């Protein structure tokens, strides 16, 4: 096995050298294809000898194999040609250079001292998971303190209520929209208008909106997105332009509110002196796949440090002062961002004018229900843009997520071998991680909080799969939102230009 692995490494150097040379120096299609074919052969050899790689090469061998697969994917992406040629050329050259250099480095490290480095990597993964578990627990504890101290009482008697525009962008939301509008129209907030923008739906959504016209719901007909705009962002811009309230609340069709939710949210904003809030919705449904295997988006936003998440934000329900939104440039400034509200939240958070809240009862009581398939679709749409559209960031995130699974894997491997330091550290790290996630569920899905004790390692694996799937589908130009491809608008970096869409009147 040792000889076979060394032969594979030597073969890799040849393939990697051809790939790098073809990407950087040569424009001849035949040479470029030859390099990628060499990499494909090396990757196929690696898959065929997985047992040898696991025993002899260890973690470094798997890293080289993963990098090779990405280099092969670059060839497939160019062959598919579903994205803009200039973007494909620049991105492919950049990715080929970095991934080739990383693969060389990993191979060289193994050839010099592979066994020692593999042991060190396993120890670092355990230490990382233990530190991460303690950090996550500390961050979640802070949200418990905030929920306990947060007062969301109604406004001061006699004080004039601010006007609010509740804006709902929809596209093909036939099953969910009716329940959403019923919960909105049950609100006891008097100075409120309801606007719904139909983004060219094809499933009868527009008829549902029109059926609520007699109850005060204003229908706004959509149009094809302008160049460089994501359809949902254009929908929110048009809703903002049509809104007349001092505050604008944006919410999704799968979000539900209670009669006093809007009043409490606005009262809290005015009392705390905030220009914007967003609310993590509560899951009140019971034991089902969509709650046990829900995505980790809000967990990461609540636990990761500020240098990774500038301002945690929820897309389900967020409220902003109309004047502040205009000062920030409206949605034209974030027309290509997959989560436009994150840009506004980050800008306002710098001046302590933004905060993310938890939609627990009896405070805001904002809830949501979503099937697992819809959650997975949303994750694929969001993850790669959140990784800044960088394959290396996806690889780094996958490595970090894999490291968080290391204590669970170590427990499985060492469980029958007696007590050891590694087993004890793994047990502590796994317990800390699982209990922290269960504490998070106590805030966001209280009926199934106990499932977090056993589901967290499965969710880490699911997050790795969804992250890689998001990257691959974006790079192949196959990511859609409600039947509309959004890849080019997200992946390109548009030059600043004046928007042709209507701005909110002064």
Mind sketching the topology for me?
Elements: H1 2-24, H2 29-48, H3 50-80, H4 85-149, E1 164-170, H5 174-185, E2 192-198, H6 205-211, E3 217-221, H7 231-242, E4 247-251, E5 255-256, H8 261-272, E6 276-280, H9 289-292, H10 297-303, E7 317-321, H11 322-327, H12 340-349, E8 354-358, E9 367-368, H13 372-386, H14 391-414, H15 421-444, H16 452-475, E10 480-481, E11 484-485, H17 487-491
Distance between the termini: 73 Å
Name of the CATH homologous superfamily of the domain at 152-281 and 316-370: Spore Coat Polysaccharide Biosynthesis Protein SpsA, Chain A
Arithmetic mean of pLDDT:
78
> How many helical stretches?
17
Q: What percent of residues adopt helix (DSSP H or I)? A: 55-70%
Please report the first level of CATH classification, the CATH class of the domain at 152-281 and 316-370.
Answer: Alpha Beta
| Rg on CA atoms, Å | 25 Å
Q: Write down how many β-strands occur, each being a DSSP E stretch of 2 or more residues.
A: 11
Strand content: 5-15%
Helix and strand sequence: HHHHEHEHEHEEHEHHEHHEEHHHHEEH
CATH topology call of the domain at 152-281 and 316-370: Spore Coat Polysaccharide Biosynthesis Protein SpsA, Chain A
Largest sheet: 7 strands, mixed
What is the global morphology? globular
Strand order of the largest sheet: 3-2-1-4-7-6-8
Which stretches of 5+ consecutive residues score pLDDT under 50? Answer: 49-56, 494-506
Structural class: alpha/beta
